[in-house]
Design a protein that fits this description.
By secondary structure, this protein is α/β, with parallel strands linked by helices. 32% of the residues lie in helices and 22% in strands. It starts with a strand and ends with a strand. The structure holds zinc ion (2 copies).
Length: 472
């Protein structure tokens, strides 16, 4: 068997690992690479293998850095099955359509801007930037999904039996267990996908690996210990109480899938328990609306606590039907500006780089009664990072604003495991695992985690470079 690390190698994004077994080619993930614009464009458009020669794809979860380049894979000739859980298939489908529409408008924006600058070739219609993929391309992916239940073994290619187990990261997320028989030899490869955390709201806890000879695992936060989710609940309550008391609005940039539903779930519980005043909660993002519907459609992914809450007649929806307004149209979104009373607005994008959140920030950032609440990691050079850094001069749509709103950061909402749980994850197969490959993480976290694992007696830990081939 050969494993080639074609993405999320020595970085977080663009997950893509190619396995060659018994003469068959199996692709784990087909993620979008996100980084500097030109480099991303080149990498995402050019696969290091011929997509038409791949026999099967297995997808761990719906996040774009794992699923986001599937439309391009299909466009370039892939025609095989895409194995994943029911909820991930469902969720990935709407996220890809949304992503297609973003790629289309990005390309259009660049082409218009170039034409304005008088680049004649562009005006003649030459060398136009083409979107990486369109909504139409994205719509072609759905027909290839072959979804299955958790823990249900299925044959992927001859000699390879796969099973998807709870990863506890986002709705539908899974680790991929591959039981392989090749030339009379049996081996188990355990691919972690993104590793979640215990006690996250809504979804079940991650399952620890067992019986694995080869472990491929993520290490995003290999150097960090998170606050626990209960502390975040209390901090969120304090932020809302304080802001409402001064008649302000709480503006929260949040990823439309996962974080938004967690926040709504927490706020719903606070309102029910009368821990916060009953102020309007608005989820303003067309994608977040769809994602919430999908959460409701997949109770099979929920943990016992959420199921109990769901069963209670009063709470016919744990994602806040009745208590929360979901705005779909641009008009509804704009109308929020005219409302003077305290409220909570949750909107994408999560790093405040695009989307409706920009309008809400623009309208609310100069009022000292308001709070901008940061609930996830913010990449360098994004507007979200500048807010998190408490900058006072903030540019939005090219216009400068003076930030007077308070900025609060809550660190405990991460959907990724911190160092202690990552170490526990690998240690679960101590004594049996022959090699651990760290992927989906920067050098610092990978180094810190491999030191931690070495201390625990796991020494065969590797941090493969992009396109490294290993033979097992
Ligand atoms: Zn993820
Ligand atoms: Zn990821």
């Amino acid at each position: 068997m050969k494993i080639t690390f074609h993405g999320a190698a020595r970085t977080v994004t663009g997950s893509q690992h190619l396995l060659q077994i018994n003469g068959h080619r199996l692709l784990l993930e087909c993620g979008l690479y996100q980084g500097r614009r030109q480099e991303s464009y080149e990498r995402n458009r050019n696969f290091p293998f011929d997509p038409a020669t791949i026999d099967a794809v297995i997808l761990s979860h719906a996040h774009m850095d794992h699923s986001g380049n599937l439309p391009h894979l299909v466009k370039k000739g892939y025609r095989g099955p895409i194995y994943t859980t029911h909820a991930t298939a469902h969720l990935t489908n709407i996220m890809l359509l949304d992503s297609g529409s973003i790629h289309e408008s990005d390309a259009e924006f660049i082409n218009k801007r170039r034409a304005k600058r008088g680049e004649a070739r562009i005006e003649r219609g030459e060398a136009r930037i083409e979107p990486l993929y369109t909504v139409e391309d994205a719509a072609q992916v759905a027909q290839y999904f072959e979804s299955s239940e958790y823990d249900q073994p299925f044959e992927v290619v001859p000699g390879v039996i796969a099973r998807l187990v709870d990863a506890g990261h986002i709705l539908g997320s899974a680790a991929v267990v591959l039981d392989i028989e090749e030339n009379g030899r049996r081996t188990r490869v355990w691919f972690s996908g993104d590793i979640g955390r215990r006690d996250l709201p809504l979804i079940r806890d991650p399952i620890l690996p067992s019986g694995a000879d080869t472990l491929i695992m993520e290490c995003t936060y290999g150097d960090k210990t998170h606050q626990n989710p209960q502390d975040s609940y209390v901090e969120l309550r304090q932020v809302v109480t304080k802001t409402v008391a001064r008649r302000g609005k709480v503006i929260i940039p949040a990823f439309a899938v996962g974080r938004t539903q967690e926040l709504v779930y927490d706020l719903h519980q606070m309102i029910d328990r009368r821990e916060i005043p009953r102020v309007p909660v608005v989820v303003d993002s067309p994608l977040a609306v769809n994602a919430s519907d999908i959460f409701r459609a997949h109770p099979e992914c929920m943990d016992q606590q959420s199921l109990d809450f769901l069963r209670d007649d009063v709470h016919h929806s744990i994602l806040g039907y009745g208590l929360v307004t979901y705005t779909r149209s641009v008009e509804q979104s704009k109308a929020l500006n005219d409302i003077e009373q305290p409220m909570i607005i949750i909107s994408a994008s999560g790093m405040a780089e695009s989307g409706r959140i920009l309008h809400h920030l623009r309208n609310n950032i100069e009022d000292p009664r308001n709070t901008v609440l940061i609930v996830s990691w913010q990449a360098p050079y994004t507007l979200g990072r500048r807010l998190a850094d408490r900058e006072t001069k903030i540019k939005i749509f090219g216009e400068e604003f003076t930030r007077r709103a308070e900025v609060v950061t809550i660190g405990g909402f991460s959907a990724h495991a911190g160092q202690p749980f990552l170490a526990e994850y690998a240690q679960a197969v101590k004594g049996q695992v022959k090699r651990v490959f760290l992927v989906h993480g920067e050098a610092g976290p990978a180094q810190a985690l491999s030191e931690k694992l070495a201390e625990a007696g796991i020494r065969q830990v590797y941090y493969p470079e992009l396109h490294t081939v290993v033979e097992i």
